[in-house]
Specification:
The chain is mainly α and 285 residues long. The protein has 14 helices and 2 strands. It has one domain: Farnesyl Diphosphate Synthase (Orthogonal Bundle), CATH 1.10.600.10. Its cofactor is Mg(2+).
Length: 285
């Protein structure tokens, strides 16, 4: 019997409540709690937790498990966005259509909140109710992923425009695609399906590359009202972008072909259906 595909809007409502409840239980002082909560609760499409849920439902993982996995990933992602917006990095005053954390509060608070949110996920993963050996493998993969992302951020801010796409692709793999690789593979690690985990990690990396290309296109073409942050920043800051080597139209066409090929590696119809709908959402956003 075919499993019903999880709809992202339905998931987002459920996940936002789960995330809010989780944040309310953090054992930190109330003043710091409001700062920590600011970025995670200012919206967002929840794409990464949704991807975890899609695969988890397809292989029968319990909702409590995949929702906590989603919380870990979303909090880390929020912390990385806080750091991205800081004056020393992207220097952006807006995120998701609202003042960035360092503008809503102050720069020191933003640094510390970002630190907290990027470290805290290990605690979430430690508390998962799975076999201890699997937990060890999952946390090991998470640490490797998190360190890769930070290295990618460094390479992003120190990038010097080159005449080939190799450097750009490497930075995008580390900075963006690695987290998607974790989203695709982590449910399979939790289910002790390691061969599938390896395969889905590579598929997730490919999805991450596609996502970054679409993000490059949006940064160049969309206004702040839609983008939710200052448009054209990447080009002004000489950040790596595939659009240095092809037009937005060429990049979009290539991404669409890559996405269709990517779906061939996924054997779960409900996941493919969810990804197709997600593709439309990302392209139109």
């Amino acid at each position: 019997m075919k499993t019903k595909t999880l709809k992202i809007n339905d998931f987002r409502k459920e996940f936002d409540k789960f995330l809010r409840d989780h944040l309310e239980r953090l054992m930190v002082c109330s003043s710091f709690s409001s700062i920590i909560n600011y970025t995670p609760l200012t919206g967002g499409k929840r794409l990464r937790p949704y991807l975890i849920a899609l695969f988890s439902q397809a292989i029968g993982l319990p909702s409590e498990l995949y929702m906590k996995l989603g919380v870990a990933v979303e909090l880390f992602h929020s912390g990385s966005l806080i750091h991205d917006d800081l004056p020393a990095i992207d220097n952006d005053d807006f995120r998701r259509g609202k003042p960035s954390l360092h503008k809503a509060f102050d720069e020191a608070s933003a640094i510390l909140a970002g630190d907290f949110l990027m470290l805290y996920p290990v605690k979430v993963l430690q508390e998962l109710t799975i076999n201890e050996h699997l937990k060890f493998l999952l946390i090991n993969e998470w640490i490797r992923t998190a360190l890769s992302i930070i290295e990618g951020e460094y390479l992003d801010v120190t990038y010097e425009p080159s005449s080939n796409t190799k450097d750009v692709n490497r930075i995008h793999r580390l900075k963006t695609a690695e987290l998607f690789g974790f989203c695709f593979s982590s449910p399979f690690i939790c289910a002790d399906r390691m061969e599938e985990a390896k395969k889905m990690k590579e598929t997730g990396l490919r999805f991450g590359h596609i996502f970054q290309v679409l993000d490059d296109i949006k940064d160049k073409l969309q206004p702040i009202e839609i983008l939710g942050k200052t448009p054209g920043k990447d080009e002004k800051l000489n950040r790596p972008s595939i659009l240095r080597f092809m037009s937005p139209e060429e990049a979009l066409n290539t991404s669409e072909k890559d996405f269709k090929t990517l779906l061939e590696n996924i054997e779960y119809p409900e996941v493919c259906e969810g990804l197709k709908k997600l593709w439309k959402l990302i392209v139109k956003a």
